Amino acid sequence: MQEAEKKTVFEYETQVLARSREILNNGSIADYKQPYTDLTNAYESLLNDIKLLTSVSDRLQKKHNQTNEKLREINEEFSQQAEEIRAIHEALQMKNAEIIARIEELKATKNDLTLARIRRRATGIIVIVAIILLVLTELFDRFVMEGSSWASKIILIILIKPLDNFIMERLKRREFAQVNLSSE
Questions:
Q1: Which of 1, 65, 84, 116 is the most buried (most CB within 10 A)?
Q2: Which candidate, 102, 105, 161, 101, places its Cα nearest to that of 129?
């Protein structure tokens, strides 16, 4: 409380005390002077104690209000920081999801490129093998069969696809085995 408010709160008590002192100083009440003096002194002591307690209470209330205000400000600051952290966390989660998606895309692209490279090698090997087998069947037909046989060429054409699959699988195993060894 302010000093002006304290005066108005205890104004009546202060007036009562002043009138009691005035009566004591007049000396008109001789028989009651000692008990009245004791009563007035006790009242004055009580009034002073009340003023002191009120003053202490006002100071404590002011400190309490200041502490509450500081706590409110700190709480607001923490709330803002928590919101910022939540926003950062959400942004990081979105970035993490994007990174994971891109990693998966890169893995798929790498696998596609690896398979294309394997397919190109297998095709090259099959073409070379087919040419060699075609020359061999032609030589076989000319010198052993003494003529041209379409049956050996048809058998050769039929065998090319299983041979292609066999070569493709072997190259895949070898390529992916190398990739696994290099990633460890």
A1: 1
A2: 161
- CA–CA dist 123, 161 (Å, integer): 11
Contact 153, 140 (CB under 8 A): no
Q: Distance (Å, rounded) from C-alpha 159 to C-alpha 153?
A: 10
The pTM score is 0.47
Read off the amino acid at residue 184.
E
Q: What is the pLDDT of residues 62-121, one digit of tens each?
A: 999 999 999 999 999 999 999 999 999 999 999 999 999 999 999 999 888 888 888 888
Tens digits of residue pLDDT in 25-43: 776 666 677 777 888 888 8
The 10 Å CB-count burial string (b at 16+, else e) for 20-40 is beeebeeeeeeeeeeeeeeeb
Domain-by-domain residue ranges, the chain?
Answer: 3-183
Helices 11-26 + 33-139 axis angle, to 10? 160
